[in-house]
Amino acid sequence: MSHVSQIAARELRAFFVSPVAYVVLALWALLAATFFLASVITFDSEIARLQQFGAFEQLELLNLNDHLIASFLFSMWFVSIFAFPAITMGLFAAEKANGTEELLLTSPLTIWEIVLGKFLAGGAFAAILTGVAAFFPAMLFAYGDPELGKTMSGLMALFLVSLTYVAIGGFASSLTQNQLVAFLVTLALLFLVGLLIPQLVVFGLASDALHAQSALIEVMRWAGTGAHFERMVMGLVETRDLAYFAVLIAAFLLLTKTSVESVRWR
Amino acid sequence: MSEPASAVDAQHLSKRYGDVVAVDDLSFRIGRGEVVGFLGPNGAGKTTTLRMLTGFLPPSDGTAAIAGHDIFRAPLPARRAIGYLPENPPLYPEMTVQSYVDYVARLKDVPRADRGDAVARALERCGLAEVRRRVIRDLSKGFRQRVGLAQAIVHDPPVLVLDEPTVGLDPIQIREIRSLIAELAAPAHGDQRQTVLLSTHILPEVAAICSRVIMIQRGRKAIDRPLVDLLDEEGSLEAVFGRVTSGEFAAQARRV
């Protein structure tokens, strides 16, 4: 296990001597602040509108979790689709470009130790980003009373999505020695999983090309991140959603391991 | 299996890429403390052979044992027994010299209690003590090569595999690296003699430090003899190299 943490520690240090980590952190914080402010303003104007029309019943239904934090978390999920390719693009590609792949593969390490070390480093960065995002909903506790449990499960959803993206990005990075290629492949994969598949479901249903009950639509519904993310943001922590993230992470770690190993098959 | 006495025991190593045969049924044995020059023209299969010995590439056929550890059956002990300087030193440009060598020491399982000493000693032996806090990116090519050597020796491996360690260096740097290797092979003060397998196509390098020559041509072994005998019979390494690369020896070897 110590090899895993050594690889992770070196990777994290490398993150923080490269400008990429700081650019991503700064943009992430800036966008978080912007989207949070936008969510607050939207929430505020919604209250004003409902009061104006005297719709007190609907006003009762408005709450900080479902109408402010949720939309903030959805925005940050969208941002993460662009942030994580930048974080993971170098994980394996840089080792190939440096020639240090040869050092790792001729050291007394298993491939799993290398893959898990890289994943751990990416996961630590994901935790930092989730922590930055958590700062904004946390402020609400000073001024209102959002539900703690719901807020936590929403943040956990963001963290789990991030971990999944680290696993996917790590795999893309292991395919190439070019970090730009790794970035673009990851972006494409994240778009596919995060946005494209749910859109296809919507189009497929709307155009009657797919039957609502068909196995294909079930698989596609399951494969898209959105539904799982949404349930957790709404405070539902269910095994099937946790399993979704676990399955995706495990599958991409396995693919990465195979890809790293494949150097030896040439 | 290998005799415990041999540091490297290559048995019928072959590597094929599709139809291309890079290394063809190569066997040799290197005893503890021997310094062997591994020669051959570019593309003869030197790097491929070294990569098979170090565990970077699996052989298509055959196997090898490093200090008695089979590379297939005991890959981790075999890799632990090797210090390897690849053709391009595997450096992380953003790290400092010391933190890099320390990181490699961790990867190679140097016990925590010995790590500080091991790193300091490797830096000292490679003449890196003064630059240990410098970032690798800022070092000259000669110094980077030394850092590459330092990472290869930091865990005090019984077998040292060096792939063209002086390529691309200026004459003064070449002389320095060469004397460093000679010092590793025949240490002045009490250190254990290391077995060295040195790949190169610079012939004076071999004459300067090696006691035995293995020459390969098109993936096959062409010559495997003590340097003294070779020089006695042929006069100079250049003559041998010329004859081997012109195909005469390769043809003979194929017939045998």
Oligomer category: heterodimer
Structural class call of chain A reads mainly alpha
Strand content of chain B: 25-35%
Measure the end-to-end span of chain B. 25 Å
Show unreliable segments of chain B.
none
Protein structure class of chain B:
alpha/beta
Which homologous superfamily in CATH is the superfamily of the largest domain in chain B?
P-loop containing nucleotide triphosphate hydrolases
Biggest beta-sheet profile of chain A:
none
The CA-CA distance between the termini of chain A, in Å, is 29 Å
Report mean pLDDT of chain B, rounded to a whole number: 87
Order of helices and strands of chain A: HHHHHHHHHHHH
Strand content of chain A: under 5%
Structurally, the number of domains of chain A stands at 1
- Number of helical stretches of at least 4 residues of chain A: 12
Q: How do the helices and strands line up, and which of them pair or pack?
A:
The complex is a heterodimer of chains A (266) and B (256).
Chain A: H1 2-17, H2 19-52, H3 56-61, H4 64-88, H5 90-98, H6 100-105, H7 111-143, H8 148-174, H9 179-206, H10 215-223, H11 225-233, H12 239-261
Helix pairs in contact in A: 1-7, 2-4, 2-7, 4-7, 4-8, 4-9, 5-8, 7-8, 7-12, 8-9, 8-11, 8-12, 9-10, 11-12
Chain B: E1 6-17, E2 20-31, E3 35-39, H1 46-53, E4 61-66, E5 69-70, H2 75-80, E6 82-85, H3 97-107, H4 112-125, H5 141-153, E7 159-163, H6 171-185, E8 195-200, H7 203-209, E9 212-217, E10 220-226, H8 227-234, H9 237-245, H10 248-255
Parallel strand pairs in B: 3-8, 3-9, 6-7, 7-8
Antiparallel strand pairs in B: 1-2, 1-4, 4-5, 9-10
Helix pairs in contact in B: 3-4, 4-5
